[in-house]
Amino acid sequence: MERPRSSLAAPHTPLVVWDLGGVLAPSGQALSALAEALNLPEDECAAPYWAHRDPYDLGGTPTEYWSLIGEALGRAFDAEWIERLDRIDTAGWAVLAADSADLLDRIARRGTPLGVLSNAPASLAAAVRKAEWSTRFETLVFSSDLGLMKPDPQVYRAADQHFGRAPSDVIFFDDRPANAEAARAHGWRAHVWTGVEAAAQVLVREGVLEG
Hints:
Blueprint lengths: L14 E4 L10 H10 L3 H10 L1 H5 L4 H12 L5 H15 L4 H12 L4 E5 L3 H9 L8 E4 H4 L6 H11 L6 E5 L2 H10 L2 E4 L3 H10 L6
Parallel strand pairs: 1-2, 1-4, 2-3, 4-5
């Protein structure tokens, strides 16, 4: 993670910040791939996958997370299985959607900086930072870095320090209304993500893209 900036002296060029899963990365791919690997119906995997996700996104270890899922499914995962499942899960969330990539390139060509604020475990955060597509971004901030998760108000205050921006200079997209509402209450120009076309229209109104 980038070193926190010492001040919030805000440039007037906005920073456009994005959630990861369901926004930049398509949702559902990881769970489908995990169900296939386990030879189980996807809906059987979904309940334990999400039930134990918050502690993992807050910095829990893969062993803790996948062991709990194994218990719920009546299976005991050894270290090899845990590594395999975590690799599948990470790969499912670390791939940038093609239409999102096109939109990011349009923004970057105009010189507008980009950032990420996502609830994500440490293994996914590391994979994103290694991915070539993440070089488009000025700053990447994940819940596992902070020990805080959206929509906790403290997340947005902590992110300000890493972004080096005043709240009014951050434009934010998240697919969960609660996260966008909390960001808006903090002072960010936050919008609920409903797709690339709608986001592009928002960015035209924000002055980031030409109409």
